[in-house]
Amino acid sequence: MTMPIQSDPPLDAGLDLEAVRAEFPVLQRKVHGKPLVYLDSAATAQRPNCVIEAVSDFYSRYNANVHRGVHQLSVEASDAFERSRERTRKWLNAASEREIVFTRGTTEAINLVAQSYLRPTLKPGDEILITHMEHHSNIVPWQLLCEQTGAVLKVAPIDHRGELRVDELEALISERTRLIGMVHVSNALGTVNPVAEVCRIARERAVTTLVDGAQAMPHVAVDVQALGCDFYCFSAHKMYGPTGIGALYGREALLEAMPPWQGGGEMIQWVSFEEGTTFNELPHKFEAGTPNIAGAIGMTAAFDFLERTGIDAIARHEAELLAYATTKMNAIDGLTIIGTARNKGPVVSFTLEGAHPNDIGTIVDYHGVAVRTGHHCAMPVMQFFNVPATARISFGAYNSTEEIDVFLDALHKAREMLA
């Protein structure tokens, strides 16, 4: 599950880039009169035709609520919805469909674990351990939980490369540690964390683990049983699927013991004013209300795209793009790459002397290049590196070295203007 940086290699022959690009209609458009160069996939990936068509097909042919009707449209919708659950289970190599809970995405999944798994048993002085490179979605829910319960949030440090100090994380584990939460791949630095190693350490100390896999799912094969994590969560829109849908994987024994987080329809078996409420079986007791049916169906199509294209071929292609961009950008005077981990995902965050990242982003946009600027919902990372913000380019299966060259040309123009 490594993403090595190499030097200026040819693109991987296993990925038909022209065919991949042809699947994404948005890549045909122009921005400010220039062909779109989309280098912001870490924020959200673009959608291939198969995803767009799957969502459209649902709404135009068999739109109906799931699990509640005996008519044909409801049966078809329910079958398609549950096929997505099985598709997700298979992709993650979870042991059972009962371990796959649909959520609005990574953020909701983490909040579900915080409020349903941890809050009922957390005591004052208990500890939650996360890393310094976390996205806000894996920081703020734990801060809120600590405020609610009197628990303590501890933070494992990173080094100047943006790599996790695993030895110091291990030293921070105590008898009061109840959960370790960590990102699989950092959205701000690109760092690929040694998740399996940390999960092994946690198991030896009887500590529960949660992995934020939002940035890993589009780029590497994820096997939750091999990783040994207790919870794993992701968002479909990072992996070429719709927005507003994602999933939480949880070990069945843990999910079974957890109370529901939200109440309403679907998550019940029996409701009575006199006898109270009994809850539905897994995973439905965590899926109150009408779900994002179209999103789940679109997510199935996204998995199909990843499988058809080949996740290993995508990973190699993106590693080569990363190596190409890194080599070129390291040669630019005044440019500093923030995050130089030895094992990186397809992300390059950087600063340019004399130029604010927002100005860089605005100027390259006029050349048709979409990049991300700001703190990337990772303010503690910015504070660690003593920068207010960075500019960030990130790659998907559809990007090319030619697009990187367009970006670099636009960056040079921005540098000249801002100087």
Topology, please?
Layout lengths: L16 H6 L7 E2 L2 E2 L1 E2 L10 H13 L10 H21 L7 E4 L2 H13 L8 E5 L8 H10 L2 E5 L9 H7 L4 E7 L11 H10 L3 E5 L11 H4 L3 E5 L10 E5 L1 H6 L10 E5 L3 E4 L13 H17 L1 H20 L4 E4 L8 E6 L4 H9 L3 E2 L1 E3 L4 H6 L5 E5 L6 H18 L1
Parallel strand pairs: 3-15, 5-6, 5-7, 7-8, 8-9
Antiparallel strand pairs: 1-2, 4-10, 9-10, 11-12, 13-14, 14-17, 16-17
Quaternary assembly: single chain
Find the structural class using helix and strand composition.
alpha/beta
Q: Mind telling me the CATH class of the largest domain?
A: Alpha Beta
- The rough form would be described as globular
Radius of gyration: 22 Å
Total of helices? 14
Tell me the strand percentage band: 15-25%
Quick summary:
This protein is an alpha/beta fold. The protein has helices spanning 17-22, 49-61, 72-92, 106-118, 140-149, 166-172, 195-204, 224-227, 252-257, 293-309, 311-330, 357-365, 379-384, 401-418; strands spanning 30-31, 34-35, 37-38, 100-103, 127-131, 152-156, 177-183, 208-212, 231-235, 246-250, 268-272, 276-279, 335-338, 347-352, 369-370, 372-374, 390-394.
Report on this model:
- This protein has 419 residues and is α/β, with parallel strands linked by helices.
- The chain folds into two domains: 17-31 and 310-418, Alpha-Beta Complex (Aspartate Aminotransferase, domain 1); 52-307, 3-Layer(aba) Sandwich (Aspartate Aminotransferase, domain 2), CATH 3.40.640.
- Helix content is 38%, strand content 17%.
- The chain contains 14 helices and 17 strands.
- A seven-stranded mixed β-sheet has the order 4-10-9-8-7-5-6, with helices on both faces. A four-stranded antiparallel β-sheet has the order 13-14-17-16, covered by helices on one side.
- Helix 3 crosses helix 10 (293-309) and helix 12 (357-365) packs across helix 14 (401-418).
- The longest helix is centred in the first third of the chain and has 21 residues, at 72-92.
- It is globular and about 75 Å long.
- The two termini are 41 Å apart.
- Mean pLDDT is 95; it is low at 1-13.
